[in-house]
Amino acid sequence: MSSITELKRRRVTGNNGVYEELYKEKLQVKKLYDFHELPEWQQDNDKILTGYIRETKSVMKCLRSLFIWNNESVNIYTHLVSAISYFLLMVGITDLLVIPHFPTSTFTDYSIINFYLLGAFGCLMCSSCFHTFKQHSSPHSDAWSKVDYMGIIVLITCSLISLLYYGFFDHKEYFHFFTVLTIVLATACTVCVLSDKFNQKDFRPLRAGFFIAFGLSGVFPVAAGMIKFGIQGIIQRVQLKYLGLEAIFYIAGALIYGFRIPETMYPGMFDFWGHSHQIFHVLVVVASFLHLKAVMGSYNFKHSRLNGVGLSTLHAAY
Length: 318
Ligand SMILES: [Zn+2]
Fold this sequence. Notes:
This protein has helices spanning 3-12, 17-29, 59-64, 73-98, 107-133, 138-167, 172-193, 204-216, 219-237, 240-259, 276-307, 311-317. The protein is mostly helical. The structure holds zinc ion (ZN).
């Protein structure tokens, strides 16, 4: 018999006030709940059995849960720490220390790189907020999950546009065409994401596939660049090795998220560490960093061309 049940029994059978006190104390210290103790709207992943923060109905309680180690903690902190890092990069360190200075560097260069950092910061911050406030109540959870999806759309959009700029820095008509295409796709995605149907539990694999498809729309400008500049040309212009790795990390993350690997195979074993959503979060952070590497490499390539410096010399310098 669990200690709570035992305390309840003694309380009901009218034992002395000490047990009453113990009972109240025990209820107060219970901060984490099992899957079957959650209200129905909170029961999402039945392969994660323990470590839940139960519906709080309070923003303050949601914020306080940041200091209780629960099955959302890794989800929250992987993206919160990364968001703060991108923010620090964005507010000054990048311009002063990270972006190499060329005589041909312009305000647009700094804007484009910071545009990407803003997208990464926005996405990771939205995600942290979603995982913190989703325990508030069903309507709050639905609203924050839309914020979370919007963050993903913002990150994909900023990622694509930053590379389109450097990939076609000397062919602005390509840049304009594919940027408009990206914005049209992002708008279509936004309309879908804001519909309540998109958020239903059964739509998880579809959601994963949806974001993969939007991300993979980047294949079209890469293919156009291949025809225009040749394979070697596009490899250098958009730093294809980093983009390829980035795509692998994003797709792997989305598949792991979609199929709930590994907790589907071992329910209860990965409640606090290592379940699919946490792996997905880590892979997103790695992929976003690889994209930053690609953007910086493309920036170097553009200015090495404009300044007539060999790219290998430049890489040795930075
Ligand atoms: Zn998440």
